[in-house]
Queue: 2 jobs
Job 1
Amino acid sequence: MLKIPPTFVFICIEMSAIAKKGKDYVKPLIGDELNVLSLRHNGK
């Protein structure tokens, strides 16, 4: 299994902040990333 680098998590957080500012086109990307992260977390 690949480990998620801290920079990748940081980018996700930054993208989440951007999405909260009303960038609707970013929200689907965030949803996909959160789904992947939650699946990886639950899969441990």
Job 2
Amino acid sequence: EATDAEVMAYIFYDRVVRERGLPREILSDRGPTFASKFWQSLMALMGVKHRLTTAFRPQADGQTERMNQVLEQYLRCYINYEQDNWVEKLPNAQLAYNTAYNESTKLTPFDANAGFTPNAYYDAQEPKNVNPTAIIASDKLKEVHDELKTELEFVRKRMQRHYDPKRLKGPTFKEGDMVYLSTKNIKTDRPSHKLDYKYLGPVKIKRKTGEDRYELDLPPNIRCHPIYHISIPATNHDKSQDQKSTKQKQSGK
């Protein structure tokens, strides 16, 4: 633990202190590196107030959790099926997030931290003897960046509605409606459930079985009970950005 904390101390100095100076306060989870005596002593000697979140009060780190959810949403959309290329997707996610307008601060994270928002992409130019491969790469990067900013804004608004204490009750369905099914209780063959698709479908509503329960017409490859509470299916077709066709191997937990 001490060795890991020493490595983290170097990274902290190299990535944070060297460029921005010492922070007055930092907030972290209770991982062994941050909870170690070495790290706690180092922060005290440097005059940095270090707060640790607790398992029974996750709202203490709510802003970080919400940001993580946004980035997880992006990764689910762009990583491959094996989920082994997520690291190479992080730079685009970081740039898009840091240049996105924040409703709370009325600034972008870049502007709040550095006092300005850098250009992500300039207007396209037409240099002579341009390399065709460079054009393709540039267009692809801009396309991914624009798509990501749109997706991040969609997720931000969706989460804002979710945390609104005055939000409306769940939707009502009728026989024949096409809905997306939450994968919360469905196991797939992908390595990470956190980065897996959050919805499968669409699937058809067969009938209403109770005041708040519906029977779904599930395909044979989804081996789980077909009756679901109203809170599980979703009709919002924007979820197609975070869903996968049911034509893959799944099984109920």
